[in-house]
Amino acid sequence: MAFLLAFDAGTGSIRAVLFNENGEQVCVAQQAWTHLPDPNYPGSMNFDYAENWKIIVMCIKEVLTEAKISPTSIKAVSATSMREGFVLYDENGREIWACANVDARAGLEVEALKRQDSELEYRSYKLSGQTFALGAVPRLMWLKNHQPDIYEKVSSITMINDWILYKLSGVLQADPSNGCTTGLFDLTRRNWSDEITDLYDIDKEIFTKVNEAGTVIGHIDVEVASLTGLSEETLVVAGGGDAQLASVGVGAIENGQAIVSGGTFWQQELNIDKPIYDSNSRIRINCHAIQDLWQIETIAFFPGLVIQWFRDSFCDKEVEEAKRLGKSFYEIMEEKTKDVPVGSYGVIPIFSDVMNYISWRHAAPSFINLSLDPEKSGKHVLFRALQENAAMVTLGNLKIIEEVTGHYPKEIIFAGGASNSKLWSQILADMLGIPVKVPEIKEAAALGTALYAGVGAGIFDNISDVVQKVVKFESVFKPNMEHHQLYQELYKTWRSVYVEQLKLADKKITEHMWIAPGLTI
Which of 27, 79, 309, 334 keeps 20 to 30 A from 166, CA to CA? Predict the structure, then answer.
């Protein structure tokens, strides 16, 4: 039997996931990694390529040991990663600088670019679908200003998934679905933009060849084979960004399909057949991994992280109870919340705002409208309120997408860790008023990556056919329309309250939960 190896490089960990030729997961090796700040530069988030390569090698060896297969049976490898993070190389192909996805050191550079030309960010957005918030331009300007000796040596740039493939094959290249998140791509052409690089006086020679996902770029390098145990015969295949390949992994490969991916961030993706720009620059537009599709993307900040914060800050008793009963913390809490009514007794969580890409910021975290009755404001109530709030931000983001495109999805594919919760899935269906489909596969980004590796290796004829064959759904949650009507009114209340809370943070009376680098209010 043939096997496919996918690397999924997330913010908090790297996973090497082995699949067989039927798209079934065989084993996974996962190692945590951290992206430490440089104490000299506030907001920095370095990507430690030397240490992280060692971690990847460990994962490869662990997979080979656990799977007990011949390395030659792994026909192809590919990689996906967090978007926005990138690696810079010198003329000899040596890494000289790298940052992770939410590196925020370039705040002053953003301010300077906006002072230089107040319309510059809007012009870039109309070409690239990106703003300065997470893009590469301010970071490159920062490097030029603060570490010019390194900047002068820059010969190539790739994203982190492309860096993994480079380490495996020795071939420098990029892909559209992640490369576009630099803000240096022409979305329509799905390639580097001469017009954007001219705007910022960036050397065009640093841009590597662009390959669509599924393109064979090389083989496992002989030294890498010796180091890891992989075979020199194994093909190395172009991959892409994690959200886009997760979309492939859950079957969202056609125009008009929509996906909500519930993790640390909640991403809402709508497939479109041509780039559509928001005149107010509130939403993001990316290349899909599918060659003739793009995606409108909105993001809810930190729903998964907020739930973890709530658990770690207030729920020691429930964590211990879960250990004693052999259950997860989330199972325990959802059992306790089963009798909490829609709307959580009026509790209003203030965490993520709806998407506003050009002026991206969030109010100070808080719970508002608490009752002094413990039955109406206990931990069980607050837990459900947080689940409802994540769904509420999703509703708000889909409303923005509908305003821009005229399209509201007929159904949602719900993926990521949050989709393991039946209660959360039902809340999402009720909030949105449409069916919510939960796929069987939980390693969606890795599966999408592996399927493209299989296309490159010739195991699969094309991505569309294999996705239809492999992707299956374990549950469909139908909306309770009475609950949906209640949520429509609760959404209006939440929006009114949030606007006022955001004003407090903008006036510096409270502190923003997060604010984009260089954004001044």
Answer: 27
